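User: Can you predict the 3D structure for this chain?
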Amino acid sequence: MGGRRAGTFATISPITITILFVPNLWTLLLRGSLRWAELQCFFHKRPNMVDLLVKLYDIPDPSETLAALAAHGIVVRRAMANEKTQVADWIRNRFGDRWAAECEAAFARQPIACFIALYKTQMVGFACHDATCANFFGPIGIDPVSRHKGVGRALLLATLQSMHHGGYAYAIVGSAGPEEFFEKCAGAIAIPGSTPGIYPSTTIKRQ
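Assistant: Here is the predicted structure, written as structure tokens:
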């Protein structure tokens, strides 16, 4: 019986085992906070994820996009130091520890390199820069219920404008996806030879 059981588990994919045994993963999948394709990326590096280059001196002015959101009660602004724990927890609960860690790195900068989108007093999205590397944009994440409303575009342009005001002429979007979003909103172009990028092929596992 033991051999049969071991053989059965040997045929189950790592993704399936993760879904069965990782707490809250089903909740994330059902809420739309974690897509199946994103889950697969934890186990299989997507070969088409390239770095993108953005000309900061040629990005659209975010004022109109920000004003349109404000008319619907959504405000995009730079995060404050006393919001670090709340912002990092919000990101961790929806997008995982890695993005939360990068957000905390962005909070260590002055001025803080993290922008948030708020509907009344509730976070609906965030974007960071200069977190993993200097001159890098990201990560960026939008709550599923607030997607396709211009929140991502507003956060992207506000954050890129901040990078431009900080003295950068160009920004790099590391391991970008979906590329079409950055191309449409900011005129980003792929950087040849940027796969697999800066992130190591081996990562630290939980002990």
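Residues 20 and 26 are 8 Å apart (CA to CA). The chain has two domains: 2-41, 52-190.
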